[in-house]
Amino acid sequence: MISKEAIKRGYNRGNYVVGAHTPPAYAATLTGTGGEAGLQRDPVRVSDAQLDSLRHVADNVLTATGDVVAWTRDWWAGSMVSETGGKPATPHAVIVAVSSVEQVQAVMRIAHAAAIPVTVSAGRSNVTGAALPVRGGIVLDVCQLNKLIGVDRDSQIVDVEAGMFGDVFEETIQKEYGLTMGHWPSSFGISTVGGWAACRGAGQLSTRYGKIEDMVFGMDVVLADGSLVTVGGYSRAAVGPDLQQLFIGSEGTLGVIVRLRLKLHRLPDYGRAIAYGFKTFAIGLDACREIMQRGANPAALRLYDELESGVQFNRPDLNVLLVADEGARQMVDAVMQISEGVCEELGEKLDGEAIFERWLETRYLTGKSAEGFKRSPGFVADTLEMSGRWSDLSAIYDEVVAAVNAVPGTLAGSAHQSHAYVDGACLYFSLRGDVAVEQRATWYRTAWDAANAVLIKYNAALSHHHGVGLLRAPYMQESLGGAFNLMLAVKRQLDPQNLLNPGKLGLSDQRFYGQEDR
Ligand SMILES: Cc1cc2nc3c(=O)[nH]c(=O)nc-3n(C[C@H](O)[C@H](O)[C@H](O)COP(=O)(O)OP(=O)(O)OC[C@H]3O[C@@H](n4cnc5c(N)ncnc54)[C@H](O)[C@@H]3O)c2cc1C
């Protein structure tokens, strides 16, 4: 029912590009593509001879600066600050568009032979700078690698190419097969299935259907040398470590995901929702924990702090919790009964239908975190999603909001709890600042530094589902500690020339790991 509504109501009220990148709103106000690069260092140039080879194997190769600026634009606030400050983020690269697995392999072989960096690019809806070609070279656009190969109806597994956009994918499997994947990121219309896996994403109904790492059955991946490997492909296996998980969240640094086998569910007709209000965010968190630990797993369990409850539901006096579920009637009713039992003990019953309806209507509008704030040239808005243990979450909420609010220029920090587990949950913070235009980058980094210092103190995960990209790169080593060296070792083994998306996940952007040239 909730899954059906997503397709019925459409993404961002239909205001987006279907089947290709949708630019963020600020792009419409940009004039010209000149100016020095804001987020590139010593970009690697692709020679005329190499371009000829690429044209020979690819569908399309774009080299004009204007095209490269437009085709590398993403949804990261850091890119927005650079671009609206007169510096295009990454103007030096070539865009290579492909539509088959063989073409991906051919491009990788050319890149491998000539040591050209390759950054995979799909929906470019990432909010971390993950798909920016910071060392130039090739931007490998996989958006036309987008066929639905088929569905194994008995096993409820779909075989799909990586570049298919989420809205087209869900609409097809809902309408043609009566199934859903249940993966509903707030960006589902502007992101691809391969991008979901590459960024280790999570959708709004993850408590019922799982996160992307639970949904991938198997994958085909092209490695840095152009070879093709298949990983996964079993309901479960005890044949050594799960190599598929290596690529889920690798953000294009270990290989190009070209095809995915994804698990599906029967499309539910039945759904229910309830809503309660709590005097404090901490009490609301207790209610979420209790619901999960009593064994209920409602598809959506979302708790908004007072500021967000005011903006979203016109209840600035309360911390509003929405509990919504879909599926078999007996199962949903049992989940609702458990949830109601918990909430009656701790909070005040609200008009669940009205709150549910407001959420259904607004959940796929882009730029929601900035709602309710007056825009000015110095306004910056961003979101930070993390996860921590229940025992720490209330303190993390207080300390992150306080740390961000203490940064000069901050308008407000706020949060909602968006994904819950038996052991902990994701808090999704919104940060908004308004400073002098030339101070935006400083405010932005200072606010992120302040928030991340709290997360590292509590050994919380720096990101729950948006990933790392450039945004979180500076904090990765400190956050992962000794485990960071493991990641480094895997990267060096799989990609010894550092071709694949250099400079992301906190990994080096240097060519050949230390030598700038050979
Ligand atoms: C308004 C908005 C709401 C959002 N809400 C959510 C949300 O609810 N949940 C969530 O998880 N995310 C969310 N995001 C973040 C973003 O949509 C996801 O990270 C998404 O999975 C990125 O997919 P994409 O196709 O746009 O990838 P891109 O942005 O093009 O690429 C992202 C990264 O993945 C790599 N990559 C992409 N495709 C491949 C591939 N085939 N093989 C290897 N590497 C690849 C790129 O190199 C890059 O490093 C949101 C973003 C926006 C703008």
TrEMBL record:
Domain FAD-binding PCMH-type: 87-267
The organism's taxonomic lineage, starting at the top: Bacteria, Pseudomonadati, Pseudomonadota, Betaproteobacteria, Burkholderiales
Naturally occurring in which organism (per UniProt): Achromobacter spanius
Family, per entry: Belongs to the FAD-binding oxidoreductase/transferase type 4 family.
Protein name per UniProt: FAD-binding oxidoreductase
Pfam family, one: FAD-oxidase_C
Alphabetical UniProt keywords: FAD, Flavoprotein
